[in-house]
Amino acid sequence: MQVLVELLLPLLAGPLMIGGLAKLMTPLARIPWPVRTGILRPPLGPRVAGGGELAALMFIWLGSQGIASGVAAGSYAVLTAAGWRLRGRPCGCFGPIRLTVIGPTHVVLNATGMCLSTGLLVLSLTLAAQPRPALVQRAVAIAIAGVLVYAGLWLGGRLRTGKQEKIQPCPDVIGSVHLYVSQDCPACRALEILLAGMETDRRAMVTVFEVGVQTGLPSRLAHLGMPCAVPLSPTEQKVCTPVSGLATVMRHIQAITLGAENSYTRRSEVSVSLRAGGTLTRRRRPWPWQ
Predict the structure, then answer these.
(1) CA-to-CA distance for 136 and 227, rounded, in angstroms?
(2) What is the DSSP code string of 82-134?
(3) How far apart are CA 114 and CA 70, in angstroms?
(4) What confidence score (pLDDT) does residue 55 get?
(5) Which CATH number is 176-283 given?
(6) Which residues of the chain have pLDDT under 50?
(7) 136: left (phi > 0), else alpha (psi -120 to 50), else beta?
(8) pLDDT at 268
(9) How far is CA 184 from the centre of its chain?
(10) Which of 152, 23, 13, 161 has the alpha carbon at shortest distance from 92?
(11) Which residue in 74, 120, 145, 204 has a CA-CA distance of 20 to 30 Å to 216?
(12) In what order do the strands lie in the sheet with 243-244?
């Protein structure tokens, strides 16, 4: 059982090491940080969280089996609660390594780590105390676990990038974007936070349409998921194909040509005809920059 404890502790420490280093070493502008209030708000929030993860890592490395297991259990309990509280927002867990939305997978993985750590704590308290391996051996084991975590994140990023590269970029000049969102869409909430970090002129070229339960999307967009977007020319003519998905929508918003002549006049509320005689109302939502 002692061997089992020493095998699992490095696996639990690996994500803490990669996450802590990423938050401390990555420029703040590249971290999609989900917290906007409290002590963990930018600019110090990512650094504080990263420092906490590395402090927990040091306890796991230097402490006894009981201390290491207890610190790991506490760390993953905090991460589980944070994942549940911040679900639907961008994931800044590993800096820019993995741009996703915090969802059930994050909560389940952190909860699994918490349960494993708690089990190791119970084992270490019930078994007779035995010396741990040398510090160098523990460091090597943790480093190997960190490399495996990083490799998994890198591979996932490469696979996701490969899928995105299959989507042809819009060859026309994009002057503005019509963005369709809904309140029950986690990726839409993440998109709000990502857009809040963009320059004001670019945000001004994004017109938000909130889709209600009774209205639905326009018929030409009915096959798309949320969020979805329609790229427009500087003269408000439709260009290219409507797109959906967080990464693809962000790519089109980032492709907006600022300074292009745009005849569109923003109004506080507009009604757009939909299929079956319904209406879709564009209104000023309480987005972070409004």
Answers:
(1) 49
(2) HHHHTTTSB--TTTTS---B--HHHHHHHHHHHHHHHHHHHHHHHSPP-PPPP
(3) 10
(4) 97
(5) 3.40.30
(6) 165, 262-290
(7) alpha
(8) 34
(9) 17
(10) 23
(11) 204
(12) 206-210, 176-181, 228-232, 243-244
At 98, list the tokens.
Answer: 């993995």
Token pair 């923003």: residue: 266
Contact yes or no for 98/153 (Cβ under 8 A): yes
Taking the domains of the chain in order of start, what are their residue ranges? 2-165, 176-283
pTM of the predicted model, to two decimals? Answer: 0.64
The span from the CA of 222 to the CA of 216, in Å, is: 8
**Phi and psi torsions of 87, nearest 5°:** -60, 140
Name residue, tokens 């009981």: 66
For residue 198, give the nearest of 287, 89, 95 by alpha carbon.
Answer: 287
The residue assigned the tokens 């679900």 is 87
Distance CA 61, CA 57 (A): 6
Question: What's the N-to-C CA distance of the chain in angstroms?
Answer: 57
Q: How far apart (Å, rounded) are the C-alpha atoms in residues 146 and 240?
A: 42
Structure tokens belonging to residue 82: 């944070």
Task: Tell me which residue of 77, 66, 53, 69 sits closest to 117, measured CA to CA.
Answer: 69
Q: Are 228 and 243 in contact (CB under 8 A)?
A: yes
Residue with tokens 């408000």: 236
